[in-house]
Amino acid sequence: MRKLNEYNKSRELFARASKVIPSGIYGHQGPAEGCYVPVEAFPLFSERAEGSYFWDVDGNRFIDYMCAYGPNILGYNDPDVDRAAAEQRKKGDCITSPSYKMIEFAELLVDTVATADWAFFAKNGNDVTTMAVMVSRAYTHRKKVVFFKGYYHGISPWTQKIDYAGVIEEDVCNNIYTEWNDFEKLEQIFADNKGQIAAVIAQPYMHGNFKDNELPAKDFWAKVRKLCTDNDTVLIVDDVRAGFRLDLKGSDHYFGFEADLICFCKALANGYNVSALCGKQFLKNSVSDLSYTGSYWLSAVPFAAGIACITKMRELDLPKILNEKGEKLKNGLLDAAKKNGFDLRITGAPSLFYLRLADDNSLITHQRWIAECVKRGVFFTSHHNHFINYALSDGDIAETVAVADEAFKAIKGL
User: Does residue 247 contact residue 205 with C-beta atoms inside 8 Å?
Assistant: First the structure.
């Protein structure tokens, strides 16, 4: 049996952080968010990362299936991406006049992404999902936006709920919510709001938290595409999380349709901070009309990193490799669960998988199993999808399965 991790330095640092940083660690990675349960099983601060691993401040090494919540697609410190970024950094990064690298990056995206006639760059996924909604409203001169329940499109007030702190009714009064894969309900929403819907925004498949992931039903996307076209409504795909893991041409292409606007971020530059909104030619003028920018949105180093990242992903045919690695991991985890008498569900795309132990509806058994894996050096989280990266080796997968087996044994009878 493996020695269990200890996190003494992490706890000391968290005590320091809590004095000067709200919540100590804010956002979805903070212990207050409920994804680290029990909190004592998880490291809170990292020291370094390389390939498919990160090391915490106590020196514990983890096989990382969160990949910085998605940006790490090639492996931490990928030499090709880092070399391109370093070369650009010598020339300049954030300059008064934007680097020509922005043009090269946009040209590469237009050449890669099926739905892209142009590209606009920002920093976070939230920047481009917000922009997509603004473009839709500018083009259609309408207010209402349709969401599928279970969505996550960022942290701006329009993406949140009326009972969330700081969110007021005016922020969400034009939001309409419906069920994923229920085309008849969506069709009725359009009938009830004739000529009022600016956009439908959706992830390519339902990869929300705290529930099994769900792929689109047969012909669902084709029918949604036609409904939007017939009603002059903009169809937005939020590919921030799944982008380039299913299909380099975009996850809409993977599912056999074309979005009007598609949002990218996480895997775009292997951890360098850049996001992109890509879209159809008919929306280009509406983008130009917006007053929308940021202090660092034109910095050149992330553009160079993005060019290197996309180029390498194309050369590798990366989605195929990630899918194969994900399938191998999935089969190993399912075998370990079955051998120990547990009902493990693995849903979603193999490269972007979601784990759930179905033996206990309270999810406590699931959380205990995840915690035992983490304490043994495999970094999963309890209620979020996970990510495969190119650097993940067969040896890493075998070690993960062995750790999962130990973790199953540890929770038996609890």
Answer: no
**Alpha-carbon span 125 to 381, nearest angstrom:** 21
Distance CA 297, CA 274 (A): 8
Q: What's the pTM?
A: 0.96
The token duo for 300 is 């050149």
Q: Write the single-letter amino acid at 12.
A: E
Which residue ranges form the domains of the chain, and what is each CATH number?
Answer: 8-64+318-411 (3.90.1150.10), 79-316 (3.40.640.10)
- Those residues whose C-beta lies under 8 Å from the C-beta of residue 320, and which sit 6 or more positions away, are none
Residue 2 banded pLDDT, cuts 50, 70, 90: confident
Tokens of 161: 């709920």
- Please name the residue that has the structure tokens 């029918």: 223
**What tokens does 20 get?**
């000067």
Structure tokens at 246: 């299913």
Choose among 216, 240, 213, 247: nearest CA to 320: 247
Write the CA distances from 299 to 86, 88, 91, 94, 142, integer angstroms: 13, 10, 12, 4, 33
Per-residue pLDDT tens over the stretch 344-367: 999 999 999 999 999 999 999 999
Strands 275-279 and 344-347: unpaired
How wide is the angle at C-alpha 185 spanned by C-alphas 190 and 182, nearest 5°? Answer: 125
Average pLDDT of the residues of the chain: 96
Residue with tokens 């909604």, as numbered in its chain? 133
Gyration radius (Cα) of the chain, Å: 22
Token pair recorded at residue 224: 């949604």
**What is the helix, strand, coil percentage profile of the chain, to 5?**
45, 15, 40
